[in-house]
Amino acid sequence: MPELPEVEGLALDLAGRLDGRAIARVDIAAFSALKTFDPPLSALQGSFVDGVTRHGKFIDISAGGLHLVMHLARGGWVRWREEVPALPPKPSNKSPMAARVHLDDGSGLDITEAGTKKRLALYVVRDPGDIPGIASLGPDPLDEAFTIDVLGGILQAAGRAQVKGVLRHQGTIAGIGNAYSDELLHAARMSPFKPASSITGDDLQTLYDAIRTILGDAVARSRGLHAADLKSEKKSNLAVHGRTGLPCPVCGDTVREVSFADSSLQYCPTCQTGGKPLADRRMSRLLK
Fold first, then answer.
1. CATH class for domain 148-287?
2. pLDDT digits (tens, 9 = 90+) for 48-62
């Protein structure tokens, strides 16, 4: 799933490519992806792009006083094309195509979604705040207003909830997903199951520094990259996420995994849990 650094990099790449361009039309191939009907898609036609910004994991293309907003969900992405076919893409359950944005010079964007679970969402709105997912976002962790006191307040309000889930919840902190929550906790040498409200003092400072450093460095690496290169950049710089069975780059211990119904987390026992493996509840059930 694209998270804050990749979405930021994608927004920056699109901002450069769409500068000075007008939207000729937007074709929808997956009708379930379009979540709004007023204003209609046709209202974007002929509008010059004013800019591209990010709200958490949402990308916002502003044009002519309106906003074409997309949330790429788990399997979505945006691909730049120097030339797009004139004919609209055909709706098909087997095709990854969700939508296509045609620009006035014949170039455009293919908005795609891999996998069978179609969760990608597109909106045309007058104000991004009209989208419930944006209106309910927590603070951006790279914003200057996101201070250590803000983080401390969030953790205390979460009580005994596991810190991994608190970091991932978009209404609590915007933009952090499964991958970067693993990476932040590894950098902070902290168990993903640690109760949020127990993180105080030096532990709070360590986690705050990890958030700012890991995400800040990832955003810096993403700047200037083309959209096609952002996914590989992310993968090549992960320490534990998606690296089950491989050595931890810090201590050399084997990276382990805890599996859930539709996701998993990765961690290093030596760096994060005092050498003790965490219980994998799914495997425990299979062994009973």
1. mainly alpha
2. 999 999 999 999 999
